[in-house]
Amino acid sequence: MVGVLPRKVNSLAARESGGLDVRVSEATLERALPIMSQVLAVLEQRGFSVKVTEQGVTTALINGESVRMGIEEPIRRVVTQKPHVPNPTDRWDYDEIVTHEPGGKLALVIHSGLWGKYEQRTRWSDAKIQRVETLVPDFVAGLMRSAIALQRQEEERKQREVEQQRRAQERAHHQKQIQEEEEKLEQLNNWVQEWERRNDCDVSSLHIQRKLSRGLPKSNHSTRHGSNGRRGRPTGSIHL
User: Fold this and answer.
1) Element (H, E) at 52
2) Residue 62: Cβ-neighbour burial (10 angstroms; 0-12, 13-18, 19+)
3) Segment holding 67, helix H or strand E
4) CA-CA distance, 170 to 133, in Å (whole number)?
5) pLDDT tens digit string along 119-146?
6) Do 97 and 140 meet the contact criterion of CB atoms below 8 Å apart?
7) For residue 49, which of 39, 146, 31 has the smallest C-alpha distance?
8) CA–CA separation, 159 vs 157, rounded Å?
9) In this structure, are residues 101 and 73 in contact, taking their beta carbons and an 8 Å threshold?
10) Which helix (H) or strand (E) holds 171?
């Protein structure tokens, strides 16, 4: 697969689909393909396999984990100054033209999707004193480390989901208990209000009865009985 200049400015884009993820220019293609072949050979020696999709996604299958990888040629930003006046004397007399060109260097790349504490090294690039060809074993080791990190990251994600589900169930249970207690409290409040209403009615009725009893005339027992309430003795003398 040969790369062409992309809409992004950091690397080349794939020209064809269905091949290895090789994003390079024509000038570095002959060098990039043997490097990828060497990577595939080392992976096969380790007992791992490689999967390539129709979209050109290249994935190393390592211990059940899929690690995306590829080789690319970073592009470089080139700035040139073009005068827009006949005799330029100042920097304002120039137009700045920016282009992007293949950089001529290669980099093996891991597209791992790792983050946080599981992040791993993702690039092995050409440098002044090293070339990518000598970094293939280290790159494959990086693929293996990424596979382990992906596995641990996935396990932590599942544990986090289980914990979230447990907490959600606990919250739902607590919410149900609170709702039940609120319903009981509402029933108790209704009972108290009903009891107070009835008690108020009974007290009012008792007050009314007392007022009525106070308003009734008392019986005059002195007209029929003595002052002490007993029948009076007859007065006068008794003649034999």
Assistant:
1) strand 49-52
2) buried
3) strand 65-72
4) 56
5) 898 999 999 889 999 999 999 999 999 9
6) no
7) 39
8) 5
9) no
10) helix 136-215
